[in-house]
Amino acid sequence: MPDTHDVEIQPADIAELGRQLSVCQAALQAQHREQEVFAYGISHDLRAPLRSIDRFSAMLDRHGGLDDTARSHLARIRAAASRMGGLIDALLELSLVNRAELKSEAVDLGLLAEWAGAELQETEPGRVASIQVAANLRVRGDERLLKLLLSRLLDNAWKFSRERECVRILVRGEREGDRLHVTVRDQGSGFDMRYAGKLFEPFQRLHGPEQGGGNGIGLAIAQRIVERHGGRLWAQSEPDIGSIFHIELPAADNAA
What we know:
By secondary structure, the chain is α+β, with helices and mostly antiparallel strands. It is built from 5 helices and 7 strands; from the N terminus they run ααβαββαββαββ. The radius of gyration is 23 Å and the shape is flat.
């Protein structure tokens, strides 16, 4: 049998590998350009008619002579336009997450969680909330995308705690070798674990709008961010008890 250790890579083989790499890089760049064009189209061409719908609905609402039924219909039209606007924002975020260049640095997830929690409390200052975040949750990754990850997970906990007198969110973490295992725990409505497989799929909803359900893209965004960092995201839950989202990410070298 020939000794494979004596096989030499020929210059022609190196040239062919280089050519194939160039082809792959060109295809990847083309895909990124297509995503950018798609994102621009969503942002510009879909937002324009939505703005018109909202503006003319508002003008009709201010017009005298409308009865309660007509005003109710207008309110539904404006609410639907608002939901569509939120869906556009989420699709743009998902597109950004898929194509954004990762900038790896030491990041404190605890600070990002506190920031995300403060933003939620500013949007609804009347809600009573207790958001407790552990110190020294240091990971390695892209700060901007990790902030989006925490915003999505805390927003999820916030929405599904709407029926509680107090929103309770607990963020903790533990170093496990070269990884950091972070948990985001809430005491919200929870969900049936039989449907956990759909949790991170775009447009899949385990709750209706009346229960706080959104457009079904938020958790898909969160999972994609974790995957791009070489980590894992999964959840445990019990109906009417709450949920725990588990995040596993590369730990920063100086994490305790």
